[in-house]
Fold this sequence. Notes:
Blueprint: H1 2-28, H2 46-50, E1 75-77, E2 85-87, E3 99-104, E4 116-125, E5 131-134, E6 141-143, H3 152-157, E7 166-171, E8 189-199
Amino acid sequence: xxxxxxxxxxxxxxxxxxxxxxxxxxxxxxxxxxxxxxxxxxxxxxxxxxxxxxxxxxxxxxxxxxxxxxxxxxxxxxxxxxxxxxxxxxxxxxxxxxxxxxxxxxxxxxxxxxxxxxxxxxxxxxxxxxxxxxxxxxxxxxxxxxxxxxxxxxxxxxxxxxxxxxxxxxxxxxxxxxxxxxxxxxxxxxxxxxxxxxxxxx
Length: 202
């Protein structure tokens, strides 16, 4: 009889312990949580979820926007009357408007509209930086009438050039050979012009 009582007591203790353990398991593992998964603590708030974990600068598109070159960006070596060396810059874009700048002032008469001009010139293509034409290796070019009959960049750019002077003219395509079928029709042209002789209009 005593043995039966001990078994009953032990059994009761075992049941009680089992219920207690079950209660602990239920408190640690909510019934809504899938088995084997632990509850995250603390759960992320809606504000936390909307903010990225890391903030980074926007990636560059890789496209760089260059400013247009000016006359001062173009390097010309050599004295007036001598064949020049022209260096086209790479740090700025080709000008889209006519550039006219005297590099040496000259002391003779000025080539006004209607005057005749004898000049040496050197032409460099902007895109390649290479010389395309020059008269320094042969003979000067005769311009019968300044202000007409030439590409528009020269019609405008030669006016006022004095005998003995040197002038830089940068011609965008629309003031040079655009639409002409010439191989330079899409090219920005860089000219150095030395006025050898100016004959004023009669």
